[in-house]
Specification:
Glutaredoxin; 6 strands; elongated; alpha/beta; 5 helices; 42% helix; 6-stranded mixed sheet
Length: 188
């Protein structure tokens, strides 16, 4: 074997080690994103778990009956999001089934007239807010739709779900109700 063979063999192993280290770093970052971090399940989307949520601002399209001190599931949707349109019947069913335990609020990005059209199939138990400028979604750190944030009666984030379906929303509601039993309400 010549020196050229051994040199190329050594260079090959250096490249393999560099690529292996790069893969480990990428997988570690990906796992932190999906499995958890100090800020919660996802440090990119939604407010960090355990923090107080910002105000929901925008034009009120429809308000359902609300009671102070109840947990709330806030869904972020957009009129340009096809999965959001398809999830409306599931969200209406969830809101009707959970009306006694949690409030359901949809913050929908898009022009107000399109948000009104979007809200048509959501049912009377769902409050709908039009986020025409996208400022509310940005202040909540939500950059994908549909996305749900579970907020306890004290305004603290207790859970987040990307691409929520009926079952995920029900589990999120159960988490909020179980947490409400354990914590005293904050004084106003």
């Amino acid at each position: 074997m010549t020196w050229l063979f051994w040199t190329s063999y050594g260079i090959l192993w250096v490249v393999v080690l560099i690529l292996g280290a790069g893969m480990i770093v990428m997988l570690r970052e990906h796992a932190e994103l999906l499995l958890g971090s100090r800020e919660g399940r996802s440090r990119i989307h939604g407010p960090p778990e355990g923090t107080t949520v910002p105000r929901l601002e925008g034009e009120e399209v429809r308000l359902a009956a609300t009671q102070p001190g109840r947990p709330r599931v806030v869904l972020f949707m957009a009129v340009t999001c096809d999965p959001c349109w398809r999830r409306r019947p599931q969200i209406a069913l969830f809101a009707a089934d959970q009306a006694e335990t949690v409030e359901t609020v949809v913050c929908c990005s898009g022009p107000v007239d399109r948000v009104r059209e979007f809200a048509g199939e959501l049912g009377p138990e769902v409050s709908v807010i039009a986020d025409a400028t996208g400022d509310t979604s940005a202040s909540w750190r939500v950059f994908l739709t549909p996305f749900a944030v579970g907020v306890d009666r004290n305004g603290i984030v207790r859970g987040k779900v990307a691409n929520p379906a009926y079952d995920n929303l029900t589990l999120l509601a159960r988490l909020l109700v179980a947490g409400a039993e354990d914590e005293p309400a904050r004084a106003p």
